[in-house]
C-alpha cells in the first residue's frame, strides 16, 4: 500500500526516485540541503556561459536507462564528436588511448614499447568475486608495463592520491577492462559521439523538478536532514559515510577553476587528460565544447584533485603557476593571459576504494538498511563512482523496490548489481 516517503537530496537520483514513487501514489517529500536542485549537476553561469560542476556529457549507451530515455525525448539534444587528448611526454595523443594511436604519437621506439606491452600483457580473465589484486597488478595484466607506467599509474596517483598497489582493482576494472586492444580498436564504431542537452544539464534537472511538482512531490530546499523522520520509507542520496561514520568510507575532493584566455585561439579539443606529475590538474575541459553556446573568450575548466600542491595556499592565488603549467602542457599558447573567472570546491566527490573495500561497503549497507526503512541510492548514497545515468538507474530500481513492497533489509543484496557498473569517461 502506498505510504509516505522522505527523499534526502535533490540530485538526479533523489528527483527520479521522488517522481517515480509519486507516480505509484506515494506521498513524497524531498529535502535538499542546498538552495537549489541538481547536486553535482547543479549548473552555474561563468562569463555568461552555462557550465556544469566539471564538464558533463552523456554517452549514447546512457539512453538505455528508460527513465533517462523518457526525459531525453522532451529535451533538445546535440551530438558532439569526441575530441579528447592525452598529454604525454610532450605529445597530444588521441583519447581513449589505442595501441595504434600511442605508437604513432610517441614515435617508433616509445610507441613500440607501448604496443608490445599491450600485445604481451597476459590479460587474465577478470575475477568477479572479492579477490582484489589491486589496481597496479590488474592494469599491468591488461595493458602491459609501458602503458601502465606511462599513463595509468600516474593518473591513478593523481586522481586518488594512493599508491596504485593499494588502490582496488575495481577502480581499474570500471575504466580499463575495456582496454584490451581489440575492444579499443572497436571503440570508434561503438562511440560515435557524446550527447548534451543543448541548453545544458540544468535543463535535465529542471525537467525532473517539473515532473516531481506535477506528480505532487513536495520539494524543500535549504534543509539538512538525517533519516529519522516519521515516514514509511527514507530514500537517502547523501553520503553513505554520514550514515555509518565509523567504517572508513573515504573520499577525495576536487577543486574546479574556470579560467578565461582572452585573445587566444585554443586547439579544437574538448578534454585534455594530463596524467603526469608535473601538472597539478588531471583534466582540463574547454567549456565551449560542452553546450550549444560558444565561449568567448575561450573558457577552460581545470580540475585539480585534492592534495595536489601546498594545502594552505588556495589555487586562486596560484593562477600564474597554473598558466605556466597549461602552457607547458601545450593547452594555452606561451605568454597568453589567463584570468580566473570562478571556482568551486567539491569536498567528497571521488569514493576512495582501497583494496578490499567491498566488505566495508556490504557492512555499511547492512547497517544503513537495518531499520527496515532506509534505502541508500545514487552516487553518494551507494559510495560508488558512477555516471549520472547509473545514479538514475539506482533510483528507478529503488522506486520499484518500494512500490512492490520488498523488504528494505534485502536492498543491499539487490544493490550488489550496481558494483558492476562501468564508468564511462
Ligand atoms: C567532475 C565530475 C564530472 C562528471 N562527469 C560526468 C559525465 O560527463 N557524465 C555522467 O554521466 N556523469 C558524470 N559525473 C557523475 C554525475 O555527476 C553523478 O553520478 C550524478 O550527478 C550523481 O547524482 P546523485 O543524485 O546520485 O548525487 P548528487 O548529485 O551528489 O546529489 C546528492 C544531493 O543530496 C544532497 N544532500 C546530501 N546530504 C544531504 C542531507 N543530509 N540533507 C539534505 N540534502 C543532502 C546534496 O546536497 C546533493 O544535492 C561527473 C561527476 C563529477 C564529479
Q: How many domains comprise the coordinates?
A: 3
CATH topology of the largest domain: Rossmann fold
Q: How confident overall, as mean pLDDT?
A: 88
Give a quick account of the main beta sheet: strands, pairing sense, barrel closure.
7 strands, mixed
How far apart are the termini?
41 Å
Number of strands: 17
Structure annotation, total helices: 14
**What is the topology, as strand order, of the major beta sheet?**
8-7-13-14-15-12-16
- Portion in helices: 25-40%
**Ligand identities:** flavin-adenine dinucleotide
Describe this protein with a few key phrases.
Alpha-Beta Plaits, 425 residues, binds flavin-adenine dinucleotide, seven-stranded mixed beta sheet, 35% helix, single chain, globular, Rossmann fold, protoporphyrinogen ix oxidase, domain 3, alpha/beta, 3 domains
What does this structure look like?
The protein is α/β, with parallel strands linked by helices and 425 residues long. 35% of the residues lie in helices and 20% in strands. It has helices at 12-23, 66-73, 99-120, 135-143, 145-160, 169-176, 181-190, 202-214, 240-243, 319-328, 357-368, 378-381, 388-403, 411-415, and strands spanning 4-8, 27-32, 44-46, 49-51, 58-59, 77-80, 84-88, 91-95, 194-197, 218-221, 233-236, 251-260, 271-273, 283-286, 299-305, 339-351, 374-376. A 7-stranded mixed beta sheet has the order 8-7-13-14-15-12-16. The structure holds flavin-adenine dinucleotide. Residues 8-14, 31-34, 39-41, 54, 56-58, 224-225, 237-238, 346, 349, 378-380, 386-389, 391 line the site of flavin-adenine dinucleotide.
Amino acid at each position: 500500500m502506498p505510504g509516505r516517503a522522505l527523499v534526502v537530496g535533490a540530485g538526479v537520483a533523489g528527483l527520479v526516485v521522488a517522481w517515480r514513487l509519486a507516480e505509484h501514489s506515494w506521498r513524497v517529500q524531498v529535502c535538499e540541503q542546498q538552495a537549489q536542485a541538481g547536486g553535482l549537476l547543479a549548473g552555474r553561469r561563468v562569463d555568461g556561459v552555462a557550465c556544469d560542476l566539471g564538464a558533463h556529457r552523456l554517452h549514447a549507451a546512457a539512453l538505455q536507462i528508460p527513465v533517462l530515455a523518457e526525459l531525453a525525448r522532451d529535451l533538445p539534444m546535440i551530438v558532439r564528436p569526441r575530441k579528447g587528448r592525452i598529454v604525454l611526454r610532450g605529445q597530444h595523443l588521441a583519447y581513449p588511448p589505442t595501441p595504434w594511436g600511442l605508437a604513432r604519437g610517441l614515435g617508433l621506439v616509445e610507441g613500440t614499447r607501448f604496443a608490445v606491452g599491450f600485445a604481451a600483457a597476459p590479460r587474465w580473465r577478470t575475477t568477479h568475486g572479492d579477490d582484489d589484486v589491486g589496481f597496479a597488478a590488474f592494469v599491468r595484466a591488461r595493458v602491459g608495463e609501458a602503458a601502465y607506467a606511462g599513463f595509468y599509474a600516474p593518473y591513478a596517483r593523481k586522481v586518488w592520491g594512493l599508491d596504485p598497489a593499494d588502490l582496488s582493482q575495481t577502480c581499474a576494472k570500471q575504466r580499463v577492462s575495456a582496454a584490451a586492444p581489440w575492444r579499443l580498436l572497436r571503440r570508434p564504431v561503438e562511440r560515435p559521439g557524446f550527447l548534451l542537452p543543448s541548453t545544458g544539464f540544468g535543463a535535465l534537472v529542471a525537467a525532473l523538478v517539473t515532473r516531481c511538482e506535477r506528480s505532487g512531490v513536495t520539494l524543500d530546499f535549504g534543509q539538512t536532514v538525517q533519516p529519522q523522520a516519521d515516514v514509511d520509507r527514507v530514500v537517502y542520496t547523501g553520503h553513505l559515510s554520514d550514515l555509518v561514520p565509523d567504517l572508513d568510507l573515504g573520499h577525495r575532493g576536487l577543486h574546479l577553476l574556470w579560467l578565461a584566455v582572452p585573445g587566444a585561439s585554443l586547439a579544437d579539443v574538448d578534454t585534455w587528460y594530463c596524467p603526469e606529475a608535473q601538472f597539478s590538474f588531471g583534466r582540463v575541459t574547454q567549456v565551449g565544447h560542452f553546450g550549444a553556446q560558444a565561449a568567448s573568450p575561450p573558457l577552460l575548466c581545470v580540475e585539480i584533485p585534492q592534495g595536489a600542491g601546498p594545502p594552505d595556499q588556495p589555487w586562486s592565488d596560484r593562477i600564474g603557476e597554473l598558466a605556466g603549467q597549461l602552457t607547458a602542457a601545450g593547452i594555452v599558447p606561451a605568454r597568453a593571459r589567463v584570468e580566473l573567472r570562478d571556482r568551486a570546491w567539491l569536498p567528497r566527490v571521488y569514493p576512495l576504494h582501497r583494496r578490499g573495500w567491498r566488505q566495508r561497503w556490504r557492512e555499511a549497507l547492512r547497517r544503513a538498511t537495518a531499520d527496515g526503512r532506509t534505502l541508500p541510492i545514487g552516487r553518494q548514497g551507494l559510495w560508488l563512482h558512477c555516471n549520472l545515468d547509473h545514479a538514475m538507474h539506482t533510483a528507478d530500481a529503488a522506486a520499484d523496490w518500494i512500490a512492490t513492497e520488498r523488504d528494505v533489509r534485502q536492498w543491499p543484496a539487490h544493490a550488489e548489481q550496481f558494483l558492476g557498473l562501468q564508468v564511462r569517461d
